[in-house]
Every structure is written in C-alpha cells, then in structure tokens.
Design goal:
It is globular, with a radius of gyration of 16 Å. The protein has 6 helices and 3 strands, in the order H-H-E-H-H-E-E-H-H. Helix 2 packs across helix 3 and helix 2 crosses helix 5. The longest helix has 17 residues. By secondary structure, the chain is an alpha+beta fold. The protein has a 3-stranded antiparallel β-sheet with strand order 1-3-2. 15% of the residues are buried.
C-alpha cells in the first residue's frame, strides 16, 4: 500500500467515543472556552452525530455549557470543569497511553 493510500485509510477510520471525549476535553483545556462551532471544528466532529457526547459530558459535569445572546442569535460556549480536568488526567490520558490510537501507533513505527 502506498503512503497516500495508508494516509487515506487512517483519516477515514472510525474514532472510538472515548477518544472523541478526550479530544473535546483537551481542546477546551487548551483554549479555556470555545464556542460550539469552533469546538466541533477543532475536534473534527459533526453536531448531528456527536451532540449526544457533548450532552453526556455536560450532564456528568465534565464540561459546562453557556448560552449568550448575540443580536437575535445565541452563541453556545463550552468550557471544561475541574471534574473534567481530573477525569482527563486520571482516566483519559492513561487510557490512550495503554491503547494508543492507530494513527499514533503507525507514526511511531515509521
């Protein structure tokens, strides 16, 4: 398989929900607060497919969601909570160390 073909396969593989959760919390930790559009874009997510993950993280107290009026529209912003930071450090980081994503594993072998 050529390098281009292998890159194509990696970029279109399924990403486990645990890694999606980690990516969300990581981006919020890095940026402090992000609006919904930016968060989804940074994480490569689709609102229709992944809204349940955001709602679950919020319900469990790992992230906060705030709505702000902006003219006749509303902006939804997310931030990570202290509980989310602890979950990231104690659970998500060690999980990825034990079970690295395939992209990372392939890069390490190159």
């Amino acid at each position: 398989m050529t390098d281009t073909a292998s890159n194509y396969n990696l970029s279109h593989e399924y990403r486990d929900r645990i890694y999606i959760r980690k990516d969300i919390i990581l981006k919020l930790t890095e940026h402090g607060e992000l609006n919904q559009t930016s968060l989804l874009s940074y994480c490569g997510l689709n609102l229709m497919k992944h809204k349940d993950i955001l709602e679950s993280l919020e319900k469990k107290g790992f992230i906060d969601r705030a709505e702000q009026a902006w003219g006749n529209k509303k902006i939804i912003k997310y931030s990570v909570t202290q509980k989310g930071r602890e979950f990231f450090k104690l659970i998500l980081e060690p999980y990825e160390d034990m079970f690295p994503r395939k992209e990372r594993h392939v890069e390490e072998q190159s």
